[in-house]
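Much of what follows relies on a compact textual record of a protein's fold. The record below shows the convention in full:
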Amino acid sequence: MKDSKAWLLKTGATVLALGATLLSTLYVTSHLKNPVAPLQPPVLGTSAVEVASPQVQPLTSTYAS
């Protein structure tokens, strides 16, 4: 009886872990990054806004106190 409970617990934990992994994989692959999504920073040399606006120095630090 004691061995069957341990076996059942191990099997249940394995099934739960595999199920969570499978569902996570399905979720991530269905929510891939959209390259034309709004609010994405422009890539250097490919944006019409960059050509029309004055050259701005890139942000080199994000330090905030």
In short: Residues 24 and 48 are 37 Å apart (CA to CA). The helical segments are 2-30, 48-52. The chain has a mean pLDDT of 78.
